[in-house]
Design a protein that fits this description.
The protein is of the alpha/beta class. It is built from nine helices and 14 strands. An eight-stranded mixed beta sheet has the order 8-9-10-7-11-12-13-14. Strands 3-2-1-4-5-6 form a six-stranded parallel beta sheet, sandwiched between helices. Strand 9 and strand 10 (225-231) form a beta hairpin. The radius of gyration is 21 Å and the shape is globular.
C-alpha cells in the first residue's frame, strides 16, 4: 500500500510511525515545512507541497489529513473527489462551511472517510458500550465527562500560544480541540438532542482569541441529561466520565483506563431500610496496554477499509460532523 500523509506535526508523525510499524513502507508526505519537530525520521520520503498534485503524481491507496484543524476539509476534498479512503483527523474542521460540499463529494465518489476519534477503540470504553447495550445499568438517566489539560505541557517542544490548539486562525479553542468526550458520549449513549453551554477565557494562560474552558450541558435523545467539561488549564490533567442508570453506574478514568461497573440489585424506586449493596465489577486495561495502541487499532481499521475487508468506518464523516456541530453550538451559546 501507498499512503499519503498531509501534515507532519505531532499527530501526523504518530500516523507516520504507526504505518511503518504495521509494515507500510510507501509513504508520501505533503507538508509546508512548518513543524518544529526534528526532521531526521522523514528523510528519504517523497515530499510534495500541494495535495491535489501529490494525489495525481503518486496515486496513493489512502490519504491521511493531519494538518491544522482549519485546513482539514479543504485538504480532504481532492482525495474524497478521487474516491480515495481518507483518515480525517478530529475535529473535522473549525466551521461547517465545507460540510455539505464534502458530504456531496462522498456520495458521488463513494469515498470512505474515517474520522480520527481514537477513543472509540479504547478497550474499556468499548466495554462500557457493551454493558450499556446489554442493559447493565438500566435506563440511562445522566452522564458527565470531564477533560482538563494543561496546554503549556501538551506540546512542550513548541510555544503553546503558537500551537494550533491556541490559535483561532488554525481552528483552536478548547471546545473544538478537545471534542473526544462529545464523540464518545454519542458513541455510548446515542444522539445529542440539545446543547446549552458557558465558555470563556478565565485562566492566566494569555490565550488571545480562543476560549480556555467550556461547560456544555447536554440533553440526549433518549431523555438523559448530562454535561461535558473541557479546559486547558488543569494541573495535574484529569480525564474521566460517569454514566448513571436506573440499575447502576459506570465510572471510567483515563489515568489508568479502568472501568468500574456498580450494578444495583434492588429494583429502581424501591425503598428499603437495608438496601442490598451494589455488585462492583472492575475492568482494567489489557496487560501491557499503551496509549498508542488506540492509534494502532485505528490505523489497522483504516488499512482494512482500504483493503475492502471492512466496509463501514467505525467513526464516519457524519459522526465527525455531529461532534463539530455540538462544539460550535457550545461556542455560540455565550
Amino acid at each position: 500500500m501507498k499512503i499519503l500523509i498531509a501534515g507532519l506535526g505531532s499527530i501526523g508523525r504518530r500516523h507516520f510511525r504507526n504505518f511503518l510499524a504495521l509494515g507500510v513502507r510507501e509513504l508520501v508526505l505533503v507538508r509546508k515545512n512548518l513543524s518544529t519537530l526534528p526532521e531526521d525520521e522523514l528523510q528519504g520520503y517523497p515530499v510534495e507541497s500541494e495535495i491535489e498534485y501529490a494525489i495525481q503524481k503518486h496515486k496513493p491507496d489512502g490519504v491521511v489529513i493531519a494538518n491544522p484543524t482549519s485546513q482539514h476539509l479543504v485538504s480532504a476534498l481532492p482525495a474524497i473527489r478521487a474516491g480515495l479512503p481518507v483518515l480525517l483527523e478530529k475535529p473535522i474542521s473549525d466551521s461547517l462551511d465545507l460540510v455539505n460540499e464534502v458530504r456531496q463529494s462522498i456520495l458521488l465518489s463513494g469515498a470512505k472517510v474515517l474520522v480520527g476519534f481514537q477513543f472509540r477503540y479504547h478497550p474499556t470504553i468499548q466495554k462500557a458500550r457493551e454493558i450499556i447495550q446489554q442493559g447493565g445499568i438500566g435506563q440511562i438517566l445522566s452522564a458527565h465527562a470531564h477533560w482538563g489539560e494543561y496546554l503549556p505541557n501538551w506540546h512542550p517542544w513548541e510555544q503553546y500560544q503558537d500551537s494550533y490548539a491556541a490559535r483561532k486562525d488554525l481552528g483552536g479553542g478548547v471546545a473544538v480541540t478537545l471534542t473526544h468526550p462529545i464523540d464518545y458520549l454519542r458513541y455510548l449513549l446515542g444522539e445529542i438532542a440539545e446543547v446549552r453551554a458557558f465558555h470563556g477565557k478565565v485562566s492566566p494562560l494569555q490565550l488571545w482569541d480562543v476560549e480556555d474552558v467550556v461547560e456544555i450541558g447536554l440533553r440526549f435523545a433518549n431523555g438523559a441529561i448530562g454535561a461535558a467539561h473541557l479546559n486547558y488549564f488543569q494541573r495535574p490533567p484529569s480525564h474521566h466520565f460517569e454514566i448513571i442508570g436506573s440499575a447502576g453506574t459506570l465510572r471510567w478514568d483515563n489515568s489508568d483506563g479502568t472501568l468500574t461497573h456498580f450494578a444495583m440489585p434492588d429494583p429502581f424506586g424501591k425503598i428499603s431500610i437495608n438496601p442490598t449493596p451494589a455488585v462492583t465489577k472492575t475492568y482494567p486495561l489489557p496487560q501491557g496496554f499503551e496509549r498508542n495502541d488506540l492509534f494502532i487499532a485505528q490505523t489497522r481499521h483504516f488499512l482494512d477499509l482500504i483493503a475492502g475487508t471492512v466496509n463501514q468506518p467505525l467513526c464516519d464523516f457524519e459522526d465527525g460532523v455531529r461532534a463539530l456541530e455540538v462544539a460550535l453550538q457550545a461556542k455560540k451559546d455565550c
